[in-house]
Amino acid sequence: MGFSCGIVGLPNVGKSTLFNALTRAGAESSNYPFCTIEPNVGTVPVPDDRLDRISELVKPQKVIPTLMNFTDIAGLVAGASEGQGLGNKFLSHIKEVEAIAQVVRLFQEEDIVHVGEVDPIRDLETIMTELRLKDLESLANRKTRLDKEIRAGKKGAKEELSFIESLEDILNREAATHGLDFSDSEKEWLSEFRLLTFKPMLIVANVSESQFGSLNSDEHYKKLLDYAANRNLEVIPLSAKIEEELGELDESEAQEYLASLGVEESGLKQLIRKGHDYLGLITFFTAGEKECRGWTIKRGSSAPQGAGKIHSDFEKGFIRAEIISYKDFIDADGSYSRVRENGKLRVEGKDYVLQDGDVVHFRFNV
């Protein structure tokens, strides 16, 4: 199962170029606003050195990484919440994704049109304002329905109304919406509301090749870091154009190119991994001669829920899970018999919470 991250931003900031680099899907990318109208969706593997290492030891017939879906969404403009540009259509597409990668432009390029001068803070505020306005509209609609439920004496309706009013206060004050603590019932309501501003969010700073080596002295970039820090957000700098070029090279050539830029890892790998982490996901592994595979689950998932990711029958008929930590598996050179000899194989029941990196074998009744 793939989890979804939407790529959003103003027109012509490099969203489709970034999407092409991520997925090599050939989404149209041109120098005019709203080139992307319907969202493009691409599925990409999540880089994980642990799966590579497990596969080297087990030598399976197939290696299947865990996946993420990236969605390239049309460029937003001021007034979108009131129908400007692609308006509500754009915002409805964002509602469907689980996390947001917001692309802002730091590169200077006269041949590529932009909304005014290059100013990433202004661009971010333009987008955040539209997301906030749409969320306030959604909450107002929910309050109207709640009035009837309160009059009917529905249990929990007054508490939900109080929570909505607290969210409206946060949005009206333009306060940070990330890193806040909520109770279990509030998290359930948030999930139902599907608010745009409360989705996990990363900021992608699209820079030129010449900016790479001097980002720490770039005034736009420094202001962007301060802006993000005050809102509990993270900034990933990359050049969408360079990443697209890297995708056309083999692994050794790509590494040489990155080294020449003074970069150890491509920005895309960072984006995929951070997007995965921001969704609160972890990976467990199954390893055998036929297949080594990574499986994505929400942090806090039980062993039966993890089994259900493989097949729904596995969850229904779950008996137990045989668990090996990643480190113990590697220390045993991928040998199950050696793991047992070392006393590192654990048998866990239905209450076990899967941990990131667990190597798992499920026992079940069909």
Structure write-up:
This protein is α/β, with parallel strands linked by helices and about 375 residues long. The protein is built from 14 helices and twelve strands. The protein has helices spanning about 15-25, 50-60, 85-95, 120-150, 155-170, 185-195, 220-230, 240-245, 250-260, 265-280, 305-310, 310-315, 325-330, 335-340; strands spanning about 5-10, 40-45, 60-65, 65-70, 100-105, 200-205, 235-240, 280-285, 290-300, 320-325, 345-350, 360-365. The strands form three sheets. Strands 2-4-1-5-6-7 form a six-stranded mixed beta sheet, with helices on both faces. Strands 3-9-8 form a three-stranded mixed beta sheet, with helices on both faces. Helix 4 runs antiparallel to helix 5. The longest helix is centred in the middle third of the chain and has 32 residues, at about 120-150. The radius of gyration is 23 Å and the shape is flat. The chain starts with a strand and ends with a strand. Mean pLDDT is about 85; it is low at about 25-35 and about 85-90.
Classify the secondary structure makeup into a structural class: alpha/beta
Biggest sheet architecture: 6 strands, mixed
Measure the end-to-end span.
22 Å
* Unreliable stretches covering 5 or more consecutive residues: 25-37, 83-88
Helical content stands at 40-55%
Mean pLDDT: 84
Indicate the overall shape.
flat
Rg computed from alpha carbons, rounded to a whole number of angstroms: 23 Å
How much strand?
15-25%
Query: Can you count the helices?
Result: 14
SSE run: EHEHEEHEHHHEHEHHHEEHHEHHEE
Count the E strands.
Answer: 12
The neighbouring-strand order within the major sheet is 2-4-1-5-6-7
